[in-house]
Amino acid sequence: MSYMDYVRTFKLPHSWCPGCGIGTIMQAIVRAFDALGWKNEDIAFITGIGCSGRMSTYINTNSMHTTHGRPLAFATGVKLARPDKHVVVVSGDGDALAIGGNHFIHAARRNIDIKLVIINNSVYGMTGGQVSPTTPQMFRTQTTPYGNIEPNFDVVKLAIAAGATFVARESVTRPRNLEKVIEKSFLHKGFSVVEAISNCHINLGRRNKLKDQITMLRWINDRIIPMNVAKRKSPEEIKDKIILGVFHEDKEREEYTQLYEKLVETVRGSK
Amino acid sequence: MSNIEHYELRFSAIGGQGIITAGAMLAEAVVQYKGLYAIHSPRYTAQVRGGPTKVDVVVDKNPINFPKTTNVDYYLSTSEKSFRTYFQDIKPGAIIVLDSNLVEEFRDPKYRVYRIPLIETAAKEIGNVVTVSTLSLAVTAKLTGLLTLEELEDFIPKRVPRGYGEINLKAVRLGYSLV
Amino acid sequence: MKRVVMPGNETVAHAAVAAGCRFYAGYPITPSSELAAEMSKLLPKVGGKFIQMEDEIASMAAAIGASVAGYKAMTATSGPGFSLKQEHIGLACMMEVPVVIVNVMRGGPSTGLPTHPAQGDVMQARWGTHGDHPIIALAPAFPTEIYMETIRAFNLAERFRNPVILLLDEILAHTYEVVDIPEPEEIELVDRKLPPSGLDRLDFYTYQRKEGDPPLLPNFFQGYNFHFESLAHDEMGFPTTDPEKVAYISRLREAKIEKHREEIWKNDEYMLEDAEIVIFAYGSVARSAKEAINRLRSEGIKVGLFRPITLWPFPDQPLRRAVGERKVLVAEMNLGQMVYEVERALRRDVFTLFKADGTPISPVEIMDKIKGELI
To answer: Cβ–Cβ of A64/C68 closer than 8 Å?
Structure first.
């Protein structure tokens, strides 16, 4: 087996722009599948709408390209139907946190064993570059031509507060770390969230003096800081930094489908 | 009443009094013991406790087409407000049963009016206010002839929650003897 | 056969379980909530899955997800929730995934009359989701029929790999009535056809099929790495914008229902033979119509009923055949919706009795209309 066995090579070339971070994330995901030795046919790979949504076309497993913002809701049905299988969702920042925000917090609250990777490129890329819930303040986008006045979500804090039991953040500028943390999240039993910081130099960068991938990746690279390094810094030094690492891991809380199966046993036993 | 063609009943009360259950039980029992068709439709509101509520029961020899009451033959009420609120489509000559403690004096020669302290009887004489459902059912069964005492004695113990069989049988017998 | 007294909402739940439904996802909404409550009681007992989702959209999605994973799945709702579910109903049409949606109609638009009956969603059942799509909608009117039509809804969904909408209204959902429940062995069940398991890979184009057939798609985890796609897709299920391919798959999607509409159509004709006037009514209004017909006939007025049980696809040919040149009265609890289809089918104007004030159309209102305008 190689990680390419998880790719529908006959569907290549893919539809993403040259230099987009999404390819790095996709490779990290299929490498994690390969490292774990998961069988293709035991994986359900579900996406929503947007550039991230297209990934389900290329992943050689059971796959479903659904509607904008709702892949977690479909995944909940799949996972509850078949708790013995691996259910993976890839979603963008707009998909997961704006139109799909409700499903995100409730999947986290239930702690259902779905592995969510959020591709956070801070913009609606596919639709031409509109402001998203993670667009930095004062950034220009197609719909914030004078600068974005809205504050943005901290995905990690949101996920932890909502009840996710594995929460991590990584960056496409550190592909091996990304692969490792995704692999770790896949091994977690419960709702896991990996926020993958990515670049959209085309629809976000070009409006904000970051118009090619190298410039934009450098910009990301200058802002990230691994958690162990951040710990040694003063709050002032890390004020504008994006901290990377595993923020939360709770192995105690019971997973939803297991609780459901217990409930069924109790109900049927007491008949 | 064994050759019944069509009969309409209404039970009105304050939500939580247990009168809706009387209507439900009546419908189930006539289906089971008389081979008749019956529907019951509780008034559907957000307020479960404390407000005026009612249940309509339609009994028919044939499958029921229009599942609403249009000519009520029998009306039982345990609340003044509810009694007035749902005093509609009552047929001249209808039997009206009122809780004598909770509904004010009502006189109208068009109707056959009975006044019975239903809730007080359930609470004091039978010993548990929840038996007012069964008590009202028994009173109704007797006045309308829809069900015999024996049928109720068979039906009630199977229908009420476990442990409440005896006390409800007491309510059946008392109800049947009250009118 | 077992005779019980149940409200329509519970009847649907029991019938769904008898039909093999083992997955329910829903969201509370009046007047359908008791259906979810009954499913939450029944499903764990038979090893099925029940989940109350965070919203209407999510419950439609979860039901589709479970269906893709091999379950017979259902959701139920009412007007506002039905509006919210529309995008995903379209997705199930597009991906050709079997699923049953119960819509207990209440007064609308918007929040409207949550505790009162209406028939204002019949056009939404057909055209609620965007784009051209095939749909089946059933509108039972009597308690035992609600049970049997629920089972038929699952059978049609499985057979044609398409969403099937079961339309009730507040009266049918909340009125406790006598239901004759057949023994399990008397019920005919249909399961979706699946490709054989154990092949190295699917050696055919999954969305390609004989015109009129549903596609032969595998379930998730059946051993094939199959892709379900919400975008317009080709014969393998992958996105395409090639006009020829888009038109081809779209035609196949429509044809599976179109070619079998004679089997999907189901009508009740009551006292039609010698009738001089025909009432067209469906759902609970048809019951008032039956009562009105009985009373009018006792007065010597010859009236009959054409009652579609399948609303979509619309039974235009059966209606035309049954009615001929006779006078027609369309009675519905809305301001005129199915009447457009009736007039299309008959190619002429008809008499109408519309009411959308939260109260049922009574037999007397129908009788008055006929006596006042049709004779």
So the answer is: yes
Total structural domains within chain B: 1
How much is the pLDDT for B2?
57
Nearest CB partner across the interface for C69, out of A61, A81, A103: A81
Select the residue from B65, B70, B155 to test the C interface by mutation, using most C Cβ atoms within 10 A. B65
CATH topology of domain C268-374: Rossmann fold (3.40.50)
| Residue from B30, B32, B44, B47 whose CB has the most chain C CBs within 10 Å, to mutate | B44
Strand partners for A168: A194, A246
Judge: B63–C290 Cβ closer than 8 Å, yes or no.
no
Two structure tokens written together for B85: 């609120």
**ipTM for the whole predicted complex goes beyond 0.85:** yes
| Chain C interface test: which of B9, B21, B66, B71 (most C C-beta within 10 Å) | B66
**Residue A164 token pair:** 């996710």
Q: Does any domain span residue B149? A: yes
Could you tell me if residue B96 is inside a domain? yes
Domain spanning C2-186 has what CATH number?
A: 3.40.50.970
Q: For position B12, which CATH number holds?
A: 3.40.920.10
Angle (CA) A153-A159-A163 rounded to 5° is 145
Q: How confident is the model at residue A271 (pLDDT cuts 50, 70, 90)?
A: low
Per-residue pLDDT of chain B (179 residues; tens, 9 = 90+): 557 899 999 999 998 888 999 999 999 999 999 999 999 999 877 666 778 999 999 999 999 999 999 999 999 999 999 999 999 999 999 999 999 999 999 999 999 999 999 999 999 999 999 999 999 999 999 999 999 999 999 999 999 999 999 999 999 999 999 99
Say whether residue A86 is in contact with chain C using an 8 A CB cutoff. no
Residue B1 within a domain: no
Residue C141: is its pLDDT beyond 80?
yes
Is position B50 within any domain?
Answer: yes
Domain span at residue B33 reads: 6-178
Res. C227: pLDDT tops 80: yes
Domain ranges of chain C: 2-186, 268-374
> How close C84 comes to chain A (CA, Å)?
13
Q: Does C355 touch chain B (CB under 8 A)?
A: no
pLDDT value of position C267 = 98
Does C31 sit within 8 Å of B66, measured CB to CB? no
- Contact check, Cβ <8 Å, B42/C174: yes
